[in-house]
Amino acid sequence: MSDKEFIIQLIDKLIWPSSLFIVLLLARKPISILIPQVTKAKFKDLEFEFDKTVKTIAADVAQALPVVKKWKNELYMLTASSPTMAILEAWKIIEEKSIRLLKTKEIEVSYNQTEKYKKIGEDLLVHQLIDIGKKKIFDDLRILRNKVAHARKFDVHQSQAISYVTSAIAFIDYLEEINQ
Question: Which end of the chain is more exposed for a tag (fewer CB within 10 A), N or C?
């Protein structure tokens, strides 16, 4: 095989991966803007759905927290009319109950707005009010709330909001239980 043939074959093998890499490199900013808006993505056997993330959190909650016995009618009714608002309201209650728990345990609570949610979760963990599993649930609920609140045109379905609200209620019930 001559040097020219070798170079031609090398170029032939590398042209598509190189082209794809260059396109992705040039389009990284538009792609990064679109990624938070994706609710479902599939490539071969790999599939990601927002719904699956919510179901994963619900499964974690079912394992780590007691079964939800009380219905929080207002939140569940809100899932029908405004799933996004139901998620935001559920998180707001988690935040309020967490801060109330910390204050009840005489833990100083003063949070700046930018790091507030992270700090609340850390304080609950550091002061042994929640374990690492419940901290993960707290963080997962916080992250999903942020996606709903900040991603442009992020469409939440009622079933997803119901799963989120159910998980949030279980966490809220847990916070209330340890606050007694």
Answer: C
Res 168: pLDDT: 92
- Taking 3-state DSSP, the helix, strand and coil percentages for the chain, each rounded to the nearest 5, stand at 75, 5, 20
Contact 165, 86 (CB under 8 A): yes
* Residue 57 CB partners (closer than 8 Å, separation 6+): 137, 140, 141, 144, 163, 164, 167
- Distance, CA of 48 to CA of 20 (rounded, Å): 22
Q: Output the six-digit token pair for 142.
A: 């916080």
Q: Quick one: which of 170, 171, 161, 173 has its CA closest to 76?
A: 161
Domain ranges across the chain: 3-37, 43-179
Give the tens place of pLDDT for each residue, 15-67.
Answer: 887 787 787 777 777 766 666 566 666 666 666 565 556 667 767 766 666 55
**Residues 98-104, mean pLDDT to the nearest whole number:** 90
As to burial, measured by CB atoms within 10 angstroms (0-12 exposed, 13-18 middle, 19+ buried), residue 82 is middle
Does the domain at 43-179 match CATH 1.10.4160? Answer given as: no
What would the two tokens of residue 57 be? Answer: 């959190």
Q: How far is CA 88 from the centre of its chain?
A: 12
